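Data deposition worksheet. Section B asks for the primary sequence of the deposited chain exactly as it was used as input, without tags or linkers unless they were present during the calculation. Section C holds the resulting structure in token form. Section D is free text for depositor observations; keep each observation to a single sentence. Incomplete worksheets are returned to the depositor.
Section A, Depositor: J.P.
Section B:
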Amino acid sequence: MMKGIIIAILVVILIGLILTILWPAIMATLGAVLGFYSLKKLLETKSVGEKVVYGILIGIGALMILTNLKGAIVVLVIAAIVYFLTKNNRNKRNDNNDTFDYPYNK
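Section C:
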């Protein structure tokens, strides 16, 4: 019984620490998503009223990113790590791979 209570308290403390440390990254990510979505919608809309609303949302997204610069840096570092881990590395040693690229069977 006592062991379960201690584990529950430690889990709550762990969740609190994760949210405290990662809160700027979460907010910067939300700002980037809001800004990107608003920019896509701004380019699609025709009416002036919608363009004003989406322009304001882009500004709010930019402010969310700027107020959480530490989180934005964390998001950029994580994105760079994911990019370089998933990048398709081709073999660069064989440069004459295009010798037999002609479609002979057509």
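Section D:
The longest helix spans residues 2-44.
The mean pLDDT is 81.
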